[in-house]
Amino acid sequence: MNRYPIIVICIFIFVCATAYAQDDVTFTFISPDNQDFSGYFATIQLGDAVQKVVLHNSQHTLPLIDGPYTVDITLDSFDTPTPDYYGSKSIVVPSDVEVSFFMYPIGYLQGTVVDMEGNLVPSARIQFTCYSSITVEFPYTSDAAGFFSVPQIPIGRCTVVASSRNVAGREDIEIRRGEDTSVEIVLGQNIDTSFSTFKVLLWGFIVFAILIVFISSLLRRQTQKKKIVLHHERQLKERKQEESREKETVSKQIRVLLQTLSEKERVVVTFLLEHDNIRSQAQIRHATHIPRTSIARILQTLERKKIITIKKDGKMVSVKLTNLFLGSK
């Protein structure tokens, strides 16, 4: 009896099962105001895939195939007209199966840019000044009809400045969670785009006067500064000698610790040592040519060994050598 087809089929089934291995990933939603998200409508986006679900509590579990993901989540209360919270995070399955997901309170902003006569101004330049911990994609200009909108704008005070053809306008607004805020920016303030000869001469005289005062002050204090410089040079020399001795001791400690690491772990740590002890996960992966899934496991192992710390902020993953490993106080 020919067993070859049976062996091929078994191998094929094994490969398929391995390639599509799944894990249950539980997201725990956290907000600055400790909001209970029971009854909130969640929109979860993983690449091109989107899932929409009503939450029963502040957690939600998804079955995900092993691999890296960038997860964007919007939470919307049925009591408010627009989404209330937004968060974004990069995860790697199966490494991340219990994920604390920080949700930032947001609102919705829509506005128009008009001239003094109330006519809409298309393609006006717009600048936003908002204070937030999240990255927001603000529009740079109004659209062809003079409108603009920011769907996920952080709550708090914002200043919006618009300008077009040497005129400008600004408005201060307050963004509230889950609320639709409207603003109209009127272009009515002239922008002076030219400097007169008088202004140039005036500024030149001011700069010249400042230079004269500065140079005179330097000459008067030259003798005192020589003494101070000599004193500082002695202190600096002593400090450098002490730092040199400390660095020699730390260098020996680092070399010993590197010998205890695997080859790939040593490559990652050496790269960080050569680049100011801190880099992003993406920079490490591109520089070392270590696959995405492998680099995540290596970084977690180094973190458990207290050699590095990993800080995640939205889509950004920062990796830094610990003071314990570097021998710093």
Describe the model.
The protein has 329 residues and is of the alpha+beta class. It folds into four domains: 4-102, Sandwich (Immunoglobulin-like), CATH 2.60.40.1120; 106-190, Carboxypeptidase-like, regulatory domain (Immunoglobulin-like, Sandwich), CATH 2.60.40.1120; 196-256; 261-326, Orthogonal Bundle (Arc Repressor Mutant, subunit A), CATH 1.10.10. It is 35% helix and 37% strand. It is built from seven helices and 17 strands. Strands 2, 3, 5, 6, 8, 10 and 13 form a seven-stranded mixed β-sheet that branches. The N and C termini lie far apart (72 Å). The model has no long low-confidence stretch (mean pLDDT 85).
Overall spatial form: flat
Characterize the main sheet: 7 strands, mixed
CATH arch. level architecture of the largest domain:
Sandwich
Order of helices and strands: HEEEEEEEEEEEEEEHHHEHHEEH
Amount of beta strand: 35-45%
Mean pLDDT: 85
Spatial gap, N to C terminus:
72 Å
Q: Examine the coordinates and then state which fold CATH places here, giving the name of the CATH topology of the largest domain.
A: Immunoglobulin-like
Rg for CA atoms? 29 Å
Q: Return the CATH class of the largest domain.
A: Mainly Beta
Beta-strand segment tally: 17
- Superfamily (CATH H level) name of the largest domain: Carboxypeptidase-like, regulatory domain
Provide the number of structural domains.
4
